Amino acid sequence: MLHYMEGLVLRNSRKPTQLRMSKTLLWGMVLLCSTCFLGATPLKYTEDRVPSSLNPVFADDMYSVRIAELLFESLVGFDKTQRPTAMLAASWNIAKDKRSIVINLREGVKWHDNKPFTSADVEFTIKAMTSRSSQISDRYLAQIIKRVKVMGANQIQIIFRKPLSKPLKWLHFKIIPKHRFTKRGRTRLPRRSDYFNRRPYGTGPFKFVRWMGRKVVMRRFAGHWRSPKTSLKGVNLQVNPDKNIQREVLRYGGFDAIIRVRPKDIPLFERDRNVRLYPYSTNDWWYVAFNQKRGSLLRDRRIREALTYGLDRENLRSAHLGDGQVISGPFSPNDPLYNFEVEPRGQDVEKAKKLLSAAGWKARPGKPYRYKGGRKLSLRLLIARSRSSYKSLCLAMQGEWRNIGVEVKLEWLGDAKWNQKVFRSKDFDMALHIWNFDDLSTIYPLFHKKGIRNYVSYRNKEVDRLLQNATQTTDPVIYKAIYGKVHKILHKELPYLFLWSLTNYSALSARVRKVVIHPFNYFHYTHSWTKR
280 φ, ψ to 5°? Predict the structure, then answer.
């Protein structure tokens, strides 16, 4: 499933450093005192933004995906070597032709309202994720599951549309309770406006208590099927978009975890004996989207290529972002589909200038920018304010594009406004964004002409054909070969300016022990975490 990736937020402040530090310490003391009055000490983690939904069906951003790991569970999970392991599914039997699987559900599992978990919940969840009437953004299961057959209260059969080499990988989606969407005997599909999305019931190790503004409170679910191995009495999410405050409150004990640490804070935490850093890899990658709708200057591939040659991506990454790798196409190097035979373009300012001249954009003596007739080569780059901590990066990119004669105007928009302008109205020239993939994701929605996330209006018949073939093959070798070709074409065509894949670091208090972090499902192993 494809998810929006979070941005790190740093509010610029003109206050003196001492004043900012005093405010930080005061806020940390308030948090510590409130914890003392509560008695129990839950795990307290901080995010840059509030989740968009607590319903995993509508988890379109990583803030929502993470909190769903605490509240909900899937049929199949991961052991600590990341091999499939039983969760809500106690056992299974895969058909010899790999076109179906019979799942025996774990008995005695309760929802947080103490209603029993049954096969009807699994059937309902799959319907919610595959129905044409569903409001979810990515109906990826509709391409995999043909139908579901309930064989008993604790047994269900799933029939696939084609033989699957690894059918268990498609059973990691979270299950939601059918009875919460049933009234007077009638069941309806979930909606984005449902009260359930802000007050959910799951089967996970922690139970929702309340959501107050920027704080979500959860406590350990006493009726959970797994024998308690954790000393965590609960988990609290406290949102604070100021990364300076996040850093200092973790250091002084007000938080137990910062999900994503800024590269510039890593040396400080490495020297702090009260904090532990945990690196973890994800399949996320950064890019600049090139809008190719009718009438756009960026329909001309020469301009897109010139913009790519204009940037020193390696230097920009090392100077502003930290560890990572420049990429040449729509995959992270951690992804087995990444085509390492395709080398990223290096910076070549002279080549960029020649491409712009060939496209009719000429330099003028004494003028910093290029012109075609009386028109200046000027583009808008839209950036969400939740990524304002990357202001220096964006200014550096703007400066490098100026060196090849392109004026790039930076427009910082609130997240809702950014989403509306980019994804819905397509009112932009370029947009800085990050995609984060799990192991179920495909790039079909991004680059197929009918893809629901193809907001750059990209069209290529050969890419459409290859992406369609990838949905039909059952041979993993052929599947990888297809995407190797797609990677090569997209590198040449540049619907996006592919930027980087970065190494992520999380910082946790040394009081939290037995920490294991799953690369994508951050809280998957919290049932075994402990806190002193």
Answer: -150, 145
Regarding the domain with residue range 283-502, which homologous superfamily does it belong to in the CATH classification? Dipeptide-binding Protein; Domain 3 (3.10.105.10)
Ranges of beta strands (E only) in 205-348 are: 206-212, 215-220, 234-239, 257-258, 275-280, 283-290, 324-326
Q: Which CATH number fits domain 2-70+204-281+505-531: 1.10.10.10, 3.20.20.70, 3.40.190.10, 3.40.120.10?
A: 3.40.190.10
Q: Which residue, among 405, 400, 406, 410, has the nearest Cα to 310 in the 3D structure?
A: 400
Q: What are phi and psi of 45, to 5 degrees?
A: -120, 160
SS3 of the chain: helix, strand, coil, percent, to 5 = 35, 25, 40
pLDDT, tens only, 420-449? 999 999 999 999 999 877 666 689 989 999
Model pLDDT, residue 230: 64
Cite the beta strand spans of 129-282 per DSSP E: 145-152, 155-160, 182-183, 186-187, 206-212, 215-220, 234-239, 257-258, 275-280
- Lowest mean per-residue pLDDT among 237-241, 299-303, 367-371: 237-241
The predicted structure's pLDDT at residue 40: 52
Question: Which amino acid is located at 210 in the chain?
Answer: R
Residue 140 in tokens: 């990826």
- For the beta carbon of residue 267, count every other beta carbon within 10 angstroms: 9
Give the separation between CA 230 and CA 527, rounded to whole angstroms: 6
Task: Phi first, then psi: give them for residue 69, nearest 5 degrees.
Answer: -65, -25
CATH code that applies to domain 76-187: 3.90.76.10
How far lies 443's CA from each of 136, 326, 333, in Å?
A: 17, 19, 15
Those residues whose C-beta lies under 8 Å from the C-beta of residue 219, and which sit 6 or more positions away, are 42, 206, 207, 209, 233, 234
Residues written for the chain: 532
What integer pLDDT is reported at residue 229 of this predicted model? 61
User: Tokens for 221?
Assistant: 């679910």
Q: Please compute the mean of the pLDDT values over residues 313-328 and round it to a whole number.
A: 91
What is the dihedral angle through the alpha carbons of 419, 423, 424, 430, rounded to the nearest 10 degrees? Answer: 90
Distance separating alpha carbons of residues 125 and 150, to the nearest angstrom: 13
The conformation of residue 33, written as its DSSP 8-state character, comes to H
Judged against a pLDDT cut of 70, whether residue 518 lies above it is answered with yes
As given in the structure block, the two tokens for residue 358 are 């060939």
Annotated domain spans of the chain? 2-70+204-281+505-531, 76-187, 283-502
H or E element: which one contains 512? strand 512-513
Q: Is 499 helix (H, G, I), strand (E, B) or coil?
A: coil
How far the first Cα of the chain sits from its last, in Å, is 36
Q: Which two tokens stand for residue 90?
A: 């106690």
Residue 332 near residue 283 (C-beta atoms within 8 A):
yes
Two structure tokens written together for 313: 């991506």
